[in-house]
Specification:
Low-confidence stretches: none
Structural class: alpha/beta
Distance between the termini: 21 Å
Oligomer: single chain
Mean pLDDT: 94
Number of helices: 11
Amino acid sequence: MRIDLHTHSTASDGMDTPAELVRNAAAAGLDVVALTDHDSVGGYAEAIAALPAGLTLVTGAELSCRWTVDSPDDDGIGMHMLAYLFDPREPELWRERELVRDGRVPRAQGMVAKLQELGVPITWERVAAIAGDGAVGRPHVAAALVELGVVDSVSDAFTPQWIANDGRAYVDKYEFDPFEAIRLVKAAGGVTVFAHPMALKRGRCVPESAIAELAAAGLDGIEVDHMDHDEPTRARLRGLAADLGLLTTGSSDYHGSRKACELGEFTTDPEIYGEITRRATGAFPVPGAGG
């Protein structure tokens, strides 16, 4: 089985519609794909309706979180939590996701304003047009920077010079406390996996001691095989996961042509996938019926 547990559609910041995503996943030879749009479940219905026979869909989301640092001069460290197979109708988790989503537009507008102060001729109207009906986010700002020739690729925008965490044009937004995210997802019957925990090129990462604290609070796993982790980092994360009793996943973090990664570029072991589905009670994988 080929299993990719981290992808994005136009319901957040991907380039493929949910229907295109599942069709492309099947064409890429995947057996299982997870739809994990940022703080959004808006792509579920379309993806399920279009799900090809032979492909199973795992519903999920990538939750925006912030690790609190005990310092008055430090606003914390951004991190992402993959949540799988939770009940999307659970009211408390739904309310928190809406708070995060509501903060996306003013945050993106703030980044545009900072970039303009830096002399970049970017406009909010263009960023909003790139986002379309999706939940506007940093990748849409990054795409506008690529169009303007300010950077060569979306990844190049995620640097301290531009919009990486703590970058010159970075703007905070409302985010989940990671411990609260774990609690809420579990209460909604879901499973939590810390996404790309050591993606250093994105900015500061939480320390290993933080991952241990999250594991003690009920974190289920960490994403190990990811394009932003080199081989030594993956080996380090596997050792940490073994020490903490965490599941290890692999995935593409696919966004369509917006990022240089392909569906199925990294995959999750079928036994790990089986354990994720066994732990989940809020929702179940959806087998394709040839939609």
